[in-house]
Amino acid sequence: MEHRHHHLQNHPVSANVEAAGGADRFPQWSLQETKEFLSIRAERDQSFMETKRNKQLWEVISTRMRDKGYNRSAEQCKCKWKNLVTRYKGCGSIEAEAARQQFPFYDDLQAIFTARMQSIICSESEGGGGGGATRKMSAASDEEEDMEENELDNKYSVRKKKKVKTGGTSTSGGNNDIKEMLEDFMRQQLQIEMRWREAFESRENERRSKEMEWRQTMEALENERMMMERRWREREEQRRVREEARAEKRDALITVLLNKLRREGQM
């Protein structure tokens, strides 16, 4: 019994070590697996924003992944999220269309962060810019500080840390920082939308031009077909007239011959 109890105590430690140190032995994340992971992470994003202790949340995500048939530890899910955020931030200096081609999960991350910022805006407007939004930004800061430890986004994390440190003593300054960040985010969204609209209009104009060219070509072919059909009908009509004239001459000649033979027989 003592040996069994000792084994049960040591087993979680060894499991954690294996999960943390043996990530390389696990297969790479597939496209579908990553999509499922981002879907689960998006459902829990609000919880990540409201708490600083997110270890249990990653355990929940690991359990949800296991339910879907993917054996991923909490540490692996956390590292995967950091890598995806890093790649998403690396696409900030290029156009959205190019970013989608370079990073297949760009739209998924964009949706998560857009929903996050909208949630912060709603909390800011409903709570008057006080405690609710500050707590959420503090949670977001905790997540960004954790990214800083892995050298994913140093500049962004330092700025977030400064906001948390000064939040208790200067609420108005923190609110101004939040507003500036929200304004920057909305400007980026507007720029992305404008580039998308320009690209869409360009493709639409090109499509309309090709469609007009195709219609003109088809109309020309149809006109040519109608002209050829009209010529054919005219030739058929001329042939019919000639045939009728030839038949009339033949009938007249036969009539003349019959009459001649009849007269000769009478003589």
Automatic annotation (TrEMBL):
GO CC aspect terms: nucleus
Main location: nucleus
Coiled coil: 211-238
Domain of life of the native organism: Eukaryota
One annotated GO molecular function: DNA binding
GO biological process, one term: regulation of DNA-templated transcription
Entries under Gene3D superfamilies matching the protein: Homeodomain-like (1.10.10.60)
Residue ranges of domain Myb-like in the record: 29-85
InterPro entries assigned: Myb_DNA-bind_4 (IPR044822), SANT/Myb (IPR001005)
Subcellular locations according to the entry: Nucleus
Keyword field: Coiled coil, DNA-binding, Nucleus, Transcription, Transcription regulation
Composition-biased stretches (Acidic residues): 141-151
Chain spans, region Disordered: 124-177
PANTHER family per the UniProt record, alphabetical: FI21293P1 (PTHR21654), TRIHELIX TRANSCRIPTION FACTOR GT-3B (PTHR21654:SF66)
Full protein name: Trihelix transcription factor GT-3b
Species of the source: Hibiscus syriacus
Lineage: Eukaryota, Viridiplantae, Streptophyta, Embryophyta, Tracheophyta
